[in-house]
Amino acid sequence: MEAIYENLFNLEWRQVVMWLIGALLIYLAIKKDMEPALLLPMGFGAILVNLPLSGAVTQVHEGVEEAGVIDLLFNATIANELFPLLLFIGIGAMIDFGPLLSNPKLMFFGAAAQFGIFFTLSLAALLGFDIKDAASIAIIGAADGPTSIFVANYFQSNYLGPIIVAAYSYMALVPIVQPPVIRLLTTQNERRIRMDYKEVGVSKLTRILFPITVTVIAGIFSPRSVALVGFLMFGNLVRECGVLKSLSETAQNVLANLVTLLLGLTVAARMTAEAFLNWRTLMILGLGLIAFIFDTAGGVLFAKLINLFAKKKINPMIGACGISAFPMSARVVHKMGLAEDGQNFLLMHAVGVNVSGQIASVIAGGLILNFFG
User: Fold this and answer.
1) Among 85, 183, 203, 241, fewest CB within 10 Å belongs to which?
2) pLDDT tens-digit series, residues 306-342
3) Helices 226-240 and 347-372 meet at what angle, rounded to 10?
4) Looking at residues 92-96, what average pLDDT do you find?
5) Residues near 84 by Cβ (< 8 Å), separated by ≥ 6?
6) Pairwise CA distance, residues 28 & 256, whole Å
7) What is the value of pTM for the model shown?
8) Cβ neighbours of residue 256 closer than 8 Å, sequence gap 6 or more
9) Are 86 and 149 in contact (CB under 8 A)?
C-alpha cells in the first residue's frame, strides 16, 4: 500500500494528459484504422513511459540511476539509426518503380513536391527554432516517417517525439488533408483532364540497374543521403533481382511490420510529459501541417506550370502525389479523378509520381544533412 501511495503522490497532471494522448492514438489506430501498426504501440508507449516512477524509462531513484528498458531499446535501435534504415529495406522491397521507369519525366513532379520542406525550414527558423531543429521539423512535409526519424535523430533534435507523431499522423491523414488543397488549386476542367497510359515494357536488366544507378548518383551528388537512399534501393534490388523472392516477401511483410511495431513503442522514450507537453509541440504540429500542404501545392502548381507550355495537358492532380506517402496519395488522386469523370483513370500516372516522391524525399533529407550536418 505504501508503494501505491508513493506512486499516487508522484503522479502529475501532465502525465495524465499524456495518458489521454496515448489513448487518442490507440483510438485512431483501432477505430479509424490510421497507421495502426505504428500509432497503437506509440499510444501504448506514451502511457507506459508516463506512469509515475515508471521502470520503462531511465530515472534516478534514491541516488541510483536505474536504466529503463525503453531507453535501452531507443539507444540500441533509433539512436544509431538502425530501425529507420531497416524500415527502408522493407519499403524499398514494396515499391514497383515500373510506372516511373516507363515515364521518367514524372521524377520532376517528385522533386517539385519537396518545396514545402524548404519553405517550412525557413519558417521554423524565423519562429526561433534552432536551424537543426527547423530542418528536422521541415522533413515532416515529405510524409516520410523513416526519413523524419533519421534526420531528427541525426541532428539530435530535442523534439523527436512530436516530429515523429506529426510525420506519421499526417501520413495517415493524406485522404483528409490533400483533397481540399488540390480542389483549391485546380479548376473542375483541370481535374477532368484525361491522360492516356501506354504500358511500356521495362526490362529486368533496367529494373536491376535502376536501384544501383540511383545509389551511385546520390552518393556522388549528396553523400549524406547514401545511407537513406542505399537501404531503400537495396530493398528494391532484393525485390527485382528475381533470386531472393522469399527474402523480398519477408522484407515487405515480416521485417517492415515488426520494425514498425517496435519503432512505435521505442519512440515513446521521447514522449515523456516533460519533453512533449510544451507550446513548441503545438508549433511543430502546425509547422508539419504547413510543410505537408505546401509540398502538395508545390507538385500541383508545377504541373499547372508545365501545362502553360505543353501541347498535351497533364492532369495537375497527379503533382500532389510527389509526397512519399506511398501508395495512399496515388489512391486519393485516382479516386478524385474518377469522382470528376468516371472514365478518368489516373492511377498509373499517380503511382509513378508517388514512387518518384519516395526517392525525392529521401534525397531531400540527404541534402538537408549535407547543408546543416
Assistant:
1) 203
2) 999 988 889 999 999 988 777 788 889 999 999 998 8
3) 150
4) 91
5) 78, 146, 147, 149, 150, 153, 263
6) 21
7) 0.84
8) 87, 90, 91, 93, 94
9) no
